[in-house]
């Protein structure tokens, strides 16, 4: 997918041009690609994708000292970061397959290519994935609670949700209806690409999924009513309330009562979705073989709501 993005172009470019191409790859994650690949693309970001293409010999870097393009084929991530003005060259062996505009090298250009083969079957993707996840998880702890950090927290939530639901939700946007009276914080389209998200569309009719973001620990009646007011039309009967609470469990006399109130009086389900729980889901992605762990955990969370919370008698009296 990343390699094909360079098709029908020029084989030589600057890092800033390659960066734009990789940004387009991230934005156009296809709905039919495996979930582990979609997640890796989100985690690697532009820099990780370029480093990966360099490490397998697809891209070479121009060395000013020797006036040559140097290609590496050892599968290891380069130690240095790319400078936006550095020159890159796609290896000539890819030119024909990608239909690049130059189909032959001049003799003097061929002499400017240096291939370094130090074959080692090793992937740097797990290390990059683990480092990226660790950075996101630690970032949220530095975001102040309340109004001072609400903008930064919303951006953090957008990044985190884009990663953990990379293959399940598409077109994730922040404030997609920013000028409307009822401004939804984060909205994404349900692709129904897994058992859990098919369940959400089948049982709760949620084609567009809402994540309301509150940068404080304990939501109250106004926050639950706000989410409930958004749940009409394509938004179905389900909404997520992201908070800075300590865990995802509902507490009797507080969260539980309002979840029951919304379900009994309005037939909607509001899921408390703390940042700490989002971090827990991110941690599940450290190992590529656990790419479906997020889906399993989300399914278990909903089972808890449907089997336990919604059957517990509320301490409040429902008002119709």
General shape: elongated
Q: Could you spell the SSE succession in H and E letters?
A: EHHEEEHHEHHEEHEHEHEHH
Number of strands: 10
Strand order of the largest sheet: 1-4-2-3-5
Q: Class of the largest domain, according to the CATH hierarchy?
A: Alpha Beta
Q: What is the CATH architecture assignment of the largest domain?
A: 3-Layer(aba) Sandwich
**Rg, Cα atoms, Å:** 24 Å
**Strand share of the residues?**
5-15%
User: Under CATH, the topology of the largest domain is which?
Assistant: Restriction Endonuclease
| Oligomeric state of shown chains | single chain
Poorly predicted ranges: 117-124
**Percent range for helical residues?**
40-55%
Briefly note the structural class of the backbone: alpha/beta
Could you outline the blueprint of secondary structure elements for this entry?
Layout lengths: L11 E3 H13 L7 H21 L3 E5 L4 E5 L14 E4 L4 H4 L8 H4 L2 E4 L8 H17 L8 H15 L4 E6 L11 E5 L4 H10 L3 E6 L7 H10 L7 E5 L12 H12 L2 E4 L2 H10 L8 H15 L13
Parallel strand pairs: 3-5, 8-9, 9-10
Antiparallel strand pairs: 1-4, 2-3, 2-4, 6-7, 7-8
Helix pairs in contact: 1-2, 2-5, 5-10, 6-10, 8-9
Description of the molecule:
It is a single chain. With 320 residues, the protein is α/β, with parallel strands linked by helices. The chain folds into 2 domains: 4-123, no CATH class; 129-311, Restriction Endonuclease. It is built from 11 helices and 10 strands. Helix 1 (15-27) runs antiparallel to helix 2 (35-55) and helix 5 (125-141) runs antiparallel to helix 10. Mean pLDDT is 83; it is low at 117-124.
